[in-house]
Amino acid sequence: ELKVEQNPLFLSMQEGKNYTIYCNYSTTSDRLYWYRQDPGKSLESLFVLLSNGAVKQEGRLMASLDTKARLSTLHITAAVHDLSATYFCAVDKPNAGGTSYGKLTFGQGTILTVHP
Amino acid sequence: DARVTQTPRHKVTEMGQEVTMRCQPILGHNTVFWYRQTMMQGLELLAYFRNRAPLDDSGMPKDRFSAEMPDATLATLKIQPSEPRDSAVYFCASGSGGAGGYTFGSGTRLTVV
């Protein structure tokens, strides 16, 4: 059974600081997604990582994927209050033959709070 | 922007009643998911469909839950009979994988009293 673990689960940051959220997973996959969820809202897609070494950046957020280490990171640069939310990674596990995807398993989520 | 539409947004019902949640996926997406989110369990996959065919519903309590996709524009999740422990937010998501990823609906917040 695929396990996806995020670390840390709670992150309190000062504005202007940098930090990294880690997402480890237990079985082979080369597709990983990052989502943001604001309180009481739905999940908003942030990044789609589809191969080993993939790196995507949007504003103050940058995500990367290392399929050999089964690790993805979400790096926050110079945090601002608007980034406060819960961040989820989700691993897309292929079927036994590796020909079909679409079964997403989510991490526990990282609750990020950015304060002055 | 194309969106996944879920109805109802909120539902309060009494224990033992039947609950039906509906989802209209984005046109052209071939994969549809149902997830349940609670504080204790996080996001749990209940069922998912590919080209309307059920691929996996192992996360769903079979005795009371059922998921169907009668046509490409509608997915349903039914609970009968409902129990207080079913109280949660139920999300539908659709996508075709790859660079497009998967898009989530706004969710149905279910409260069973």
Structure write-up:
The complex is a heterodimer of chains A (116) and B (113). Chain A has strands spanning 4-7, 10-14, 19-25, 32-37, 43-49, 55-58, 61-66, 71-76, 85-93, 103-106, 110-115. Chain A is mostly beta strands. In chain A, the strands form two sheets. In chain A, strands 2, 4, 5, 9, 10 and 11 form a six-stranded mixed β-sheet that branches. Chain A has a five-stranded antiparallel β-sheet with strand order 1-3-8-7-6, with no helix packed on it. Chain A is elongated and about 50 Å long. The N and C termini of chain A lie far apart (41 Å). Chain B is mainly β and 113 residues long. Chain B is 0% helix and 56% strand. Chain B has strands spanning 5-7, 10-13, 19-24, 31-38, 42-50, 53-56, 65-71, 74-79, 88-95, 102-104, 108-112. In chain B, the strands form two sheets. In chain B, strands 2, 4, 5, 6, 9, 10 and 11 form a seven-stranded mixed β-sheet that branches. In chain B, strands 1-3-8-7 form a four-stranded antiparallel β-sheet, with no helix packed on it. In chain B, a hairpin with a 3-residue loop joins strand 4 and strand 5 (42-50). The chains are: A mainly beta (116), B mainly beta (113). Chains A and B meet through strand 5 and strand 10 of A and strand 4, strand 5, strand 9 and strand 10 of B.
Brief summary:
The complex is a heterodimer of chains A (116) and B (113). Chain A is an all-beta fold.
Kindly state the number of beta strands of chain B.
Answer: 11
Helix content of chain B: under 10%
Number of helices of chain A: 0
The best one-word shape of chain A is elongated
Which range best describes the helical content of chain A: under 10%, 10-25%, 25-40%, 40-55%, 55-70% or over 70%? under 10%
Radius of gyration of chain A equals 14 Å
Distance between the ends of chain B: 36 Å
Shape of chain B: globular
Structural class of chain B: mainly beta
